[in-house]
Amino acid sequence: MLNKPKIPKKYQPLGYEILHEDLDVIVGHKTAGFLTVAALWNKEKTIHSALEKYIRKGNPRSNKEVFVVHRLDQATSGVLIFAKSEKAQQFLKNNWKSTEKFYYTIVRGALKKKSGLITSYLQEDEDYFVHSSKEDTAGKLAQTEYEVVKEVGAYSLLKIRLLTGKKNQIRVHLAGEGHPIVGDIKYGKEKSGGNKNLMLHSFSIEFTHPHSKARILVKADVPDYFKKLVNFDYL
Q1: CA–CA separation, 53 and 33 (whole Å)
Q2: Strand pairing partners for 165?
Q3: DSSP letters of the chain?
Q4: Worst-scoring range by mean pLDDT, 1-10, 75-84, 151-160, 170-179?
Q5: 73 touches 171 (CB < 8 A)
Q6: Cα 36 to the chain's mean position, in Å?
């Protein structure tokens, strides 16, 4: 059973709606545009820093921390998990293969195969660009399972099951298939000034709780701009 806390406005983490919180984990809905953790160009305006302020409740002497379990790209919205102790963090990471992760995305064009598995090896270069190769001599194995849910004009709505969790994986894989995600300037070669939103959303995560060992399922509704593009309301 989910435990959604009532949070006073002054402690509400910026860019993150908490959907479940207990003694071990915080699970919430990250807003697109926010970094998960600090980067060279932004060390303060992150979900990680917002949650640490939240759990410390304005007490600068508090030693409470939150611990990163996984990440979402800055432009990606959806479900994101943090641990409240190193022990819980380690448990979640050790059991990450049993965690079920589903995304929705909108891509350009109509896929010939309406479902399938994309497999390649991903490697990041010095410019932070991730390259995909079919050769296992370079990079790390990445697997993305997809299913076409709906086709609307020039767009296709896909449901994604993420089998591995490499940086930019879904974006790179779909661009490599010739069906880049709408709004992806980096991998989709979409021109600046086009669709301002990246149409990629982490819809649900089901994980084993580090203390109770129960399976916990958390879902985050897709943003309104996402729904309007393909005109669907059944998620």
Answers
A1: 19
A2: none
A3: --------GGGPPTTEEEEEE-SSEEEEEEPTT-BSS-BTTBSSSBHHHHHHHHHHTT-TT-----EE-----TT-EEEEEEESSHHHHHHHHHTGGG-EEEEEEEEES--SSSEEEEEEEEEE-TTS-EEEES-TTSSEEEEEEEEEEEEETTEEEEEEEESS--TTHHHHHHHHTT-PBTT-TTTS-PPTTS--S--EEEEEEEEE-TTT--EEEEE-PPPHHHHHHHT----
A4: 1-10
A5: yes
A6: 9
Pick the catalytic residue: 22, 73, 125, 136? 73
CB burial of residue 93 (10 Å; 0-12, 13-18, 19+): middle
Annotation marks residue 73 as catalytic: yes
Tokens of residue 63, six digits: 């030693």
Confidence of residue 58 (pLDDT cuts 50, 70, 90): low
Q: Is the pTM of this model over 0.85?
A: yes
pLDDT at residue 119 greater than cutoff 90: yes
Tokens of 143: 């697997």
Nearest-angstrom CA–CA distance, 44 and 49: 6
- In residues, how long is the chain? 235
Instruction: Write down the domain spans for the chain.
Output: 9-222
How many CB atoms are located within 10 Å of the residue 126 CB? 5
Other beta carbons within 10 Å of 39: 11
Q: Please give the structure tokens belonging to residue 91.
A: 């448990």
**Structural class in CATH, domain 9-222:** alpha beta
